Amino acid sequence: MGRADKVFINGEVITVNRANQTAEALAVKGNKITFVGSSREAREHIGSQTELIDLKGKSLLPGFIDAHQHLQMRGNNALAIDCRPPGVTSIAQLKSLIAQKAARTPQGEWIRGWGYDHSKLAENRHPDRFDLDEAAPGHPVILVRVCNHIGAFNSKALELMAVSPEARSIRGAPVGERNGRPNGVMFEAAFMETAGKSAPSEHEMADALAKAGNMLLSEGITSVHDAGGYGFAQMKALQTAVETGKLRPRIYAMLFSLNGDSGSFSSHYIDSGIRTNFGNDRLKLGPVKMMIDGSSSGPTAATLEDYSSMPGNRGLLSLDQDYIDDMVLRGHRAGYQVTAHAVGDRAVTMILNAYEKALLAYPRAGHRHRIEHCGIVNPALLKRIKAMEIIPVPQPVFLWEFGDGYVRNYGQRAHRMFTAGSFARHGIVAAGSSDCPVTFANPLLNIHVAVNRMTQTGLSVGPYEAIPVMEAIRLFTYNSAYASFDEKIKGSLEAGKLADLALLSRSLLKADKNEIKDITVEQTFLDGEMVYSG
Prior knowledge:
The chain is α/β, with parallel strands linked by helices. It contains 17 helices and 24 strands.
């Protein structure tokens, strides 16, 4: 028997295996787990060179897997002006921060800000180009709303991107107005098109990805499904960052671009002959992705019924059914996993219609097609998701930050949003994610919200959709591995699997359910090597 490089004993080893067993000890040799069991049995794996780690009752879990983040954007935002509430509560404050940044930024260079929420600003409106022109007339400025579906550009930015400041719509999506004049506030497709033209430089992308990767490791996240951003430039940056070791977590890269026509970008991959799972355990191609509707908090999600807060408004669609049908069919036939951003029940209905048609025309077992967000569903949609074995990718943590607004905008529908409980009861495999930087990436906060279904203000939202802590852990480990066809190599602590581990500050299973959010990650291991220590 070969002796282990590391042996963990006296802990709460949460295996997330088929039986959800808990062990006391775990051994690692090289980059693989070689033993899981009792502390007494583990001593047989200890040699003179073995590092012995006493867990002292703390939880050891599989490294967390976030099934939907925007890595490039997250890194970009970490290097930009933080406009999030409660730190920023007014447009006047935003303008001051931008002016300060402009004073120390060379003339003509971009100023970027992110995370504002117009509903939480004193002026109760979006900051617009007139505000941004006053704050930084000599610099191009972009401010991105917290949802990443809406943003504001100043006149200098619009000029650089050859966008008319008087344009009232772009790609059929509206541009905001103030006093009858277009104000540089872009919504949905208009924002995606314009933001794509303001992509960071290759150097900025490299710095941002390195920053994002380090943030992931500090959160115990060892694998992430990247939900796309800047097209071919970002794919190149991802590969370079992984190859050079700047980006260490494992990446499953969705094929989606904000730069112009995302369908054209995806088509290059579909037509190439390669397909989902091309790559290795560090970086591989994921699904072809589309964006069907807007955001849950905008609110611009496409719903079957009017918003409770805005009679007559049912959100925004970015694509029509014919386009969705064609892209799904092409990707499905070419052997790709396919996914779509679909938040509202109208958008979810449309992607399910497309999946049904593709599977009827070309049956394929084990396709594992997905729905990103899958925010609002009804019993009929749940049955269709189960029947076609579709994988929803919800974000429990959205309820924490945006839940109060959901109740205001969607009424009773809010109580069945991001329905982890219903997914579990229907036997649907759902993969957990955060959609960071839209909101917090912390997997333990995500688990906390999945278990408690409470907002930051203490409002209970759909308590019957709450799930037990073990089911919540599974969302962010095994289920997310399954969503990327990786359940045989990661997502649970079993002999032969990759030694990607997260060590917590205390026992997770013994914690009061209201204290889960207070637990922290002490150490993160990737391929058996400690890559973070808090």
